[in-house]
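S., here's the first fold you wanted:
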Amino acid sequence: MVDQKSIILNQFETLDRAIIDTSSVIYLSTIDLLKATTKNLHLITVAGVVKETGEDALFKNIEIVDIFSKTDARTDTDQSIINMAVHLKIPVISEDKKVLMNAKRAGLAYFNSLMILNFLLYKGVIQKDFYGKSLHRLKQSAHYSEDVYRFGKTVYEWISPHFS
C-alpha cells in the first residue's frame, strides 16, 4: 500500500497543469503567488471564474476553456470546473470543500492554496523564508480548519528536508 507521503510527493512531481476556481485565484493573488503558480503550472479555468472575480487582469496567463457551460446554461461555475477537470483528466485547485470532494469522488487529484504553496516550495520556486511570509498572509485571509493547517504543516515537513 502506498502511503500518503508518497502519494503527495508523486502528485507534486507530476503536477504540470490544473483547473483553478475563483477562491484559489483570489487567495493565490492575495499572497502574491498567482504569477509564480502560472509560471510553473498550466492553469485552466472556466469563464464563470473570470466573471466571479471581476478582474480580467488576473487571468493573463490562465487558459479559459468553457465547453460545458456554453452547452448548458444551467451548469453553475463549480460544476463547470468539475466537468472540465473530469473531461481533461486534470487536478483541481479550489478552496471549496464541495468542489474538492467532487474532485475526489471523480478520482482526480485536488489541492487548495496551502498545498500549492507547498508545491512551489517543493519545486524550488520559492524559498523557506518566502514560504513563511506567504503562509502568514494566507492565514490572514483563508478560512481553513486547524486540520487543514496541520496537514499543510505535515506536507511542509515532508518536503523541507529536501531543502536543508
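And the second, which I think is the more interesting of the pair:
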Amino acid sequence: MSVLISDLTARLAREVGDTNASNLYYTPALLITGIIDGTAEFNLQIPDQQYSLSGAVAGSSFSPDPSIEDQQLIVLCSALVLTRGEIMKAARSAFSHSNPAGSTNLINIPKMLDMQAQRLEDKITEIIANRSRILVESEFDGCGVELRGRATEQNAEGIGITTIETTN
C-alpha cells in the first residue's frame, strides 16, 4: 500500500501544535504544501535516500514508499519548513508598543519560534545520527568490531564521537 501525502498531514498538524479543531491555524492545503517542501528538505538532509511525489496534490504518493522512520523525518522536516516561515512572518511584525492603556510586546515571538526550529533540527540530527550508527553497526556485526559511543566527548560541530575498538 503506497504512502500518500495526506497520510502525513495529521502528524504534521500535531507536530506544529495545530490541534484545536475549532480554530485550526493551517489549512489542509498549507499542510500538504508543507509536506511537499519538507520532502525536498528531507532529500537535502539525506542524499542517499531520495523521495519524489507523484499524482494530484492531495492524493500524491511517495516513490518509493518511505519507512516509518523516514515518514517521521519527513514530518519533522516539514514542521521545520513551516516554522522557518513562521519566524519570517513574526520577524516582520515584531514590535513593542506602550501607551497609557497598556503595552503590547511581540519582540520575543521570533526568538521563541527560533527555539522551536532548533528543537526540530536537534530531533532530525538525532534520528539521522542514530540511523547512521545502526548502519555502521550492521556493517561491523560479526566482524569482531564493537562500537562504543562516549556521550561526554564531542567534536567541534557538537556531534558525539564514536570510538571503534576491535575485540580480537
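Why I say that: The longest helix spans residues 108-140. The CA atoms of residues 94 and 106 lie 5 Å apart.

Talk tomorrow,
H.
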